[in-house]
Amino acid sequence: MATTSNVTEIILLGFTQNRDLQKIISVFFLFIYMAIVLGNGLIVVTIVVSKGLTSPMYFFLGYLSFVEICYCSVTAPKLILDSFIERNIISVNGCIAQIFFLHFFGGSEIFLLTVMAYDRYVAICKPLHYTTIMNRRVCSLLVGAAWGGGLLHSAGQTFLIFQLPFCGSKTLDHYFCDVHPVLKMACTDTFLISVLIIANGGSISIISFAVLLVSYVVILLSLRNQSSEGRRKALSTCGSHITVVGLFFIPCSFVYMRPCVTFPADKIVAVAYTVVTPLLNPVIYSFRNAEVKNAMRRLVGKKVIREKM
After folding, report:
1. 248 class by beta-carbon count within 10 Å (0-12 exposed, 13-18 middle, 19+ buried)
2. What is the pLDDT of residue 139?
């Protein structure tokens, strides 16, 4: 740790060194990013404006969509811009800031998905007490706890990276800054820090996954006593949530719950949890939900009427 840093800028290698191919990939990312912002933004606006979507499930869904927009905005815009101006450079401070916000929004999403699982557990297993248990104050506290958990997780990861000296290679074989690739650039022994980073991310993933697993085991057991229509609705809602959880947790676990080594497949896996999950969230959660679709139609209908007037 006595070595001082003499690296001020980092070169991001991106997906490929072929500039033409990189531009094609960036155009693809641009369309996906626009779809993520428009899809999740529409959900946020619909839930905020519509008077019929007041249940805790939609309250949490609105925050999840907002987090998805913020999460993909940490990496996608820079990748797209760098490709067209042909300057794949980021400052060391900018790199650390990217790590901070990536883990802040990613950690918040993990905790928010856990909160949503608890909400479904109360709704299905304790329907008579649902409105009492999940009142607006409790929902706000749970969302605040999700943001706070994400902040603590991100602060821990960033602090460990921030104290490292960088005096070796200036190139980073990734399309954004993340803890494992950045650790390889440090000119000091990073074994202890890598263990702490794995413990930080691993403990959050294991605890959250355990809570999710227990919640859905209890939910599935309780469905035996419900009607076929009730089981169908509950399984549809829980199935959507489990799908999102799987799409997010499996790639994250592959990257963050292992020794601090990098693989060529890491870039593709990173696309799954930074781009694919935010893109599919509106489709899985909202566009298959009759209440959300009806609320969107009413919202669009009101806009059309106002424009005609």
Report:
1. buried
2. 94
Helix, coil or strand: residue 105: helix
Two tokens at 35?
């779809």
Taking the CB of residue 250, how many other CB atoms lie within 10 A of it?
12
pTM: 0.89
Write the CB contacts of 30 (distance below 8 Å, at least 6 apart in sequence). Answer: 80
Which residues are CB-contacts of 56 (< 8 A; sequence separation ≥ 6)?
119, 123, 134, 139
What is the C-alpha to C-alpha distance for residues 196 and 188, in angstroms, rounded to an integer?
16
pLDDT in tens, 116-146: 889 988 888 888 889 899 999 999 999 999 9
Q: Which residue has the tokens 């905005």?
A: 73
Q: Which of 270, 216, 273, 211 is nearest to 240 (CA)?
A: 216
Q: What is the mean pLDDT of residues 257-279?
A: 82
Q: Measure Cα distances from 306 to 117, 216, 301, 302 in Å.
A: 39, 44, 9, 6
Cβ neighbours of residue 47 closer than 8 Å, sequence gap 6 or more = 53, 58, 59, 61, 62, 65, 292, 295
In the chain, the N- to C-terminal Cα span, in Å, equals 68
Sorted by where each starts, the structural domains of the chain and their CATH numbers stand as 9-308 (1.20.1070.10)
How many CB atoms are located within 10 Å of the residue 166 CB? 21
Strands (E), the chain: 9-12, 89-91, 171-172
Which two tokens mark 155? 């602060």
CB < 8 Å & 24+ apart, contacts of 223-226 = 223/124, 226/124
Binning pLDDT at 50, 70 and 90, where does residue 304 land? very low
Backbone angles phi, psi at 277, to 5 degrees: -60, -50
Which tokens is 44 given? 């946020």
Residues in the chain: 309
Residues 6+ apart with CB under 8 A from 32: 76, 275, 279
